[in-house]
Backbone:
């Protein structure tokens, strides 16, 4: 939900409100109770809630491309005749090394 900043043009009272986009605009000042409370034009503010923010979004500097494993493996080592890696993990067992 967006956070909107309001200011009263009569008394100068300012306050931020967490509102839905569909909520009506506030017009009555909670301090002086006059109809001079207006929404300010500010930078957008919002809150990200829940799991998955940043923890899984390329935290380590980016995703590694899929393909051959890194290291000093010989080209073609551990591949089957069709070019696919064997089911054991391409070099994880003595038979594939």
Residues:
């Amino acid at each position: 939900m967006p956070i909107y900043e309001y200011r009263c043009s009569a008394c100068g009272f300012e306050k931020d409100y967490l509102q839905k986009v569909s909520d009506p605009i506030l017009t009555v000042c909670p301090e002086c109770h006059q109809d001079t409370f207006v929404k300010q034009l500010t930078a957008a503010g919002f809150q990200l809630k829940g799991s998955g923010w940043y923890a899984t979004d390329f935290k380590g500097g980016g995703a590694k491309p899929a393909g051959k494993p890194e290291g000093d493996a010989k080209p073609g080592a551990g591949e089957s005749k069709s070019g696919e890696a064997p089911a054991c993990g391409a070099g994880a067992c003595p038979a594939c090394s």
Q: What stands out?
A: Residues 3-39 form one domain.
